[in-house]
Write a structure and sequence with these properties.
four-stranded antiparallel sheet; alpha+beta; ten-stranded mixed sheet
Length: about 300
């Protein structure tokens, strides 16, 4: 893959420092040098010590990324929301993990994306997962299609959170504000291998929410994470007495028609590192969650 820039500084600068300013890491420079890439200035191959002058045309060629053979191929179709040369946004169904685990090496979204890349015959075959979702969380996931794109979007992620979630919660609904923040540290719950809890010895965690719809027993909330702790949304809403419905690990009711944590990533936005334009993607609320909104909140019904 090729990337081009025009050098527009009056003072001279070595290529390696210019490329660093463009987001090219030392590791990527090494890959270019040793794995078949090249650096050109005005169509002449140069090394990283070459000094650029005003008006020089810089081009780098990044070698293709060969597949990781340990990642299995799954040909299950994926729902693509957006795709260009650098990024892929998909809509993940609930019940599907983001990445393989020791005892579940196949069937994840990473396996499915690899199957899609294979079918398309893409030169770059490495799967770069940018935003993960828990197995039972539905909604938007972002993949980078090459290592440079992954590195560039990671910088964007460090600057701000790019995802918005919607959740259905139960419990002390009347205690929810129209707009609130939950700031409680989160750490491991040593009674479980998976569970987390709020604890003074935990890591700082902050969750912002907006109340969208509610009755006296269920509410639909929109959520922005300001930190990224494991199970953060689930733990924080349990802590304020409003666990997610379908989330039996954290005390949510299993009698509202949703048998998984009612959490959906419905919005994904970021400044595209290569076009410099803001991109926004939206996914409609998952069918099982929307049914609860339609039948329970809007009609006032409740399953005891």
């Amino acid at each position: 893959m090729e990337f081009k820039w025009k050098y527009e500084k009056e003072t001279k600068q070595q290529i390696k420092y210019f490329l660093k300013e463009q987001g090219i890491s030392k590791g990527l420079l090494a890959k270019i040098k040793f794995q078949g890439g090249k650096i050109e200035v005005n169509e002449i191959i140069q090394n990283v010590l070459y000094e650029l002058s005003f008006g020089d045309q810089v081009k780098i060629t990044i070698p293709d990324e060969k597949e990781h053979e340990t990642l299995l191929v799954d040909d299950t179709p994926i729902e693509i929301i957006f795709e260009d040369d650098h990024y892929l946004v998909i809509n993940k169904p609930s019940g599907v993990a983001s990445i393989p685990a020791q005892y579940h090496p196949n069937g994840t979204m990473a396996n499915r994306v690899k199957g899609y890349y294979k079918k398309q015959g893409y030169n770059d075959q490495v799967i770069h997962v940018v935003t993960r979702l828990d197995r039972d969380t539905s909604g938007l996931m972002l993949f980078a299609k090459h290592g440079f794109a992954h590195a560039m979007i990671d910088q964007e992620l460090r600057n701000k959170r790019v995802t918005i979630y919607q959740a259905l919660v139960c419990g002390k609904i009347t205690s929810l504000a129209q707009h609130g923040r939950i700031t409680l540290p989160i750490g491991r719950d040593y009674t479980s291998l998976l569970k987390r809890k709020t604890t003074e010895s935990g890591q700082h965690a902050e969750t912002e929410y907006w109340l969208e719809e509610s009755d006296d027993k269920i509410a639909k909330v929109r959520i922005q994470l300001h930190t990224g702790r494991t199970h953060q949304i689930r733990v924080h809403f349990e802590a304020i007495g409003c666990p997610l419905i379908g989330d039996d690990m954290y005390g949510g009711t299993m009698d509202a028609g949703v048998t998984r944590q009612a959490l959906h990533c419905n919005s994904l936005s970021f400044i595209h590192p290569f076009t410099k334009q803001e991109v926004v993607f939206v996914s409609s609320l998952a069918t099982d969650m929307q049914k609860v909104v339609n039948t329970l909140i809007k009609r006032g019904d409740w399953i005891e």
